Amino acid sequence: MIRNKFFSAEEIAPRTFRITNCFDSHERMTTYSYLLEGDERAMVIDTMFGYGNLKTFCRELTDRPLFLVNTHYHGDHAGGNFDFDECWIHAADIPYLQNMAAAVNDPATFRNMRYEQMKQAALPENRDSILPTDFSMPHPMFIWPVWDGDCFELGNRLVEVIKVGGHTAGEIVLLDRTTRICFTGDACNSNTLLNLPGSLSVEEYLENLYHFKTFQPAFDHCHGGHEDFDASIIDEGIELCRRVLDGTDDHWETTGMRGGVCYYGMARIPQETALGTRYGRSDGKRFNIAYLAETVRKTPKTPRIL
C-alpha cells in the first residue's frame, strides 16, 4: 500500500487503484478516488475534497499521462479538480461548477477559507502540520462535457459513461468491463441524497436506475465515492423508489444535511462501526434514499423561451 499524510492507495483489481482520503476524520464520511491505468493513459475518477495534491500522488501509481473524469460536481468529488488542468463531467452538471470560477477570480479568499476548512477537518495528528500550500489552488482550467454512451479509450481498456441522474442531474457512472467494476460515485448507495439543490425527482431517478440496470450483466461490483456494493444494490434502489412513488415506504422524517425537512424511504438505524456511526435498515438491505415531499414526482417540462 502506498501512503502519505493525505492519501493511501490499494490495488483492487489489475491496474486499478482505490485512493482513500486519510487526512481528515472518517466520522463524517469515507471518501475515495480511483485510478484506472491503460496502456496509453490513466483515468482519475473524482478528486475528493482537495486536501493534498492528488495528481502528484497519482504519479506514484503510474507513469501514464493522467486525465480526470468527475462523476458529479459536489465538493467531496470535485474539490481537488484544481490539481489538474482539465476535467470531463456530464454537461448537465457543468453549470454547478460556477463556484470554481468564483475561486479563480478571488484566490486569496479561497486560500483563507480552504485553510480554515482543513484545520477543522484534519485528524488530530495532522492538525499541527498543515501548510497553506497543502491544497489545490484555483487556476483557469478546461471543462469538457460527456454524455451517456461516451467511451474513454485508455489503451486496451475501454471505459463507458452511463448517466444515472438523480443525486445530481448529471451524475454518471463509469463501467470497466475488463475488471467487471462500475465506478458509481454517489449514484446508488445507502445514503442516496435526492434532497439537495440540483437533484432530480424520485420518478426521474427511477427511470435512470432502469437504464443503469440494463448494464448490470456487465459488472459484479459497484465501487462508489464512499461505499462499495455488489451489483444487486441497483435492484434494491429500484424496489425502494417504487415504494416511494406508491406511498408505501417508511416516509421517515428527519432534518437534511443543509437544514429543512426531508424524508428517507426506510427508517435509518444507527450502527456503530470501526469508522464511527453508520446507518442501516431494519430489514438488512442496504439502499436508502432521501427526498423532498415536493420532488417525488417529476414536474412537466415547459418550453425554453429564447
Task: Walk me through what this model shows.
- It is a single chain.
- The termini are far apart.
- A hairpin with a 3-residue loop joins strand 1 and strand 2 (7-13).
- Helix 6 (202-213) packs antiparallel against helix 7 (233-246).
- Strands 1-2-3-4-5-6 form a 6-stranded mixed beta sheet. A 6-stranded mixed beta sheet has the order 9-10-11-12-14-15, with helices on one face.
- It is globular and about 50 Å long.
- The protein has a single domain (2-194, 201-234), classed as Ribonuclease Z/Hydroxyacylglutathione hydrolase-like (Metallo-beta-lactamase, Chain A, 4-Layer Sandwich).
- The chain has 306 residues and is of the alpha+beta class.
- It is 20% helix and 29% strand.
- The relative contact order is 0.12.
- It contains 7 helices and 20 strands.
Brief characterization of the structure:
The chain has 306 residues and is an alpha+beta fold. The protein has a single domain (2-194, 201-234), classed as Ribonuclease Z/Hydroxyacylglutathione hydrolase-like (Metallo-beta-lactamase, Chain A), CATH 3.60.15.10.
